Automatic annotation (TrEMBL):
GO terms for biological process: DNA integration; DNA recombination. The lineage of its organism: Bacteria, Pseudomonadati, Acidobacteriota, Terriglobia, Bryobacterales. This is Phage integrase family protein. Residues 114-199 form the Core-binding (CB) domain. The keyword DNA-binding applies. It holds the Pfam family Phage_integrase. One of its GO terms (molecular function) is DNA binding. Residues 222-405 form the Tyr recombinase domain. Keywords: DNA integration, DNA recombination, DNA-binding.
Amino acid sequence: MINQLFTFSSTIERLRQGPLNEHLDAYAAAVAEQGYTHDSIRQQIVVIADFSRWLAQKHIDVQALNSQIVDRYLRLRRRQQRIRRGEPKTLVRLLAMLGQKGVVKQHQQPVADNARTRITNEFRCYLLQERGLSPSTLLHYVPVAEQFLAERFHNAVPSFAMIRATHVTGFVLRHARQLSPVRAGLMVTALRSFFRYLRHRGVIATDLAACVPTVPNWSLSTLPRFLPAAAVERILECCDRTTSVGRRNHTILLLLARLGVRAGEVVGLSLDDIDWSTGQITIRGKGGKSAQLPLVNDVGSALADYLRHDRPRSATRRVFLRHRAPLVGFGNSSTISSLVRRALKHAGVESAHTGAHVLRHSLATSLLRQGGSLDEIGELLRHQSPNTTAIYAKVDVTALHTLALPWPGGGR
């Protein structure tokens, strides 16, 4: 494929120098399949060719290649002020491809752009490999560590010995007031885990995990976040269904609003989870539990149209893909929440809560007001405990007002 991308034989000969020569064509074909343009592929091949010549100069075989060697090369390029835009991502992509082919070992620590990224990558590997946490849990833990380091050290190399208890409590107090009790609780749990990891590695001597304050989160202390049924319909109608992206987004919003699917479940949805013969879809939820939900008419029709006409061609089995290269599934659930936020804004719907979960809460609230029981709602939302569903007993605020006793001595 390299011969089709480059015109001059002298250029091709120069690109093919070094131990990565035999993998260039496979790499070019792989990224072409992911939707990258020829111009982008040419730029990536030049990056890999430069790296290949450096490997030859250092007498490093492809089989010995790992993320530390890539990291070392990138640091050299930065010192020489020769690093190109997208160079780290290209080499990470190359390393992943070589790992999938069995040329190099897989499950290596990701290549780091800087010292801060390096420590959070190591934290990620620790949680995944030593603690055995699920990838979805990592999506909650690692960003908290990244945010703490970014706010404490900005662009400087982290000096962990300089972290004080006041820095920890200040971070929690600053962010907790902007979060729901549940999200604030996740934040402090993630922060404690990060500090325990640093102490486990010997990076810090002080038990900073003990300095992380507790955030109160009383069971059933809040009202569920929901939108009126009319507002939900406005959100569903706001997508521009004359475009492929608009039709994809409309299908995602239907899954959230009609079936109460979580954002992370949308991200992980596979083509193998859809059973057209029975009109059911398998949702793989929390704790590895699966459930079959019916493909109601509008959801099934939108999903079929998207898969038939709008989903980009890709080797991945994920249902919902990016529409720009790389043509792969979404990275995490925050992409879905961002999609919902944009839809609310476009539809002119004002809400204090704008994430994907607001549509799940809205579905449950609507069903309850139509006469559905808490048991039925718990079954639809796949709650593992009845206590989780109990919060919806409080959604009929008007009815609750009639139960409120007058204040003794108050006005008539």
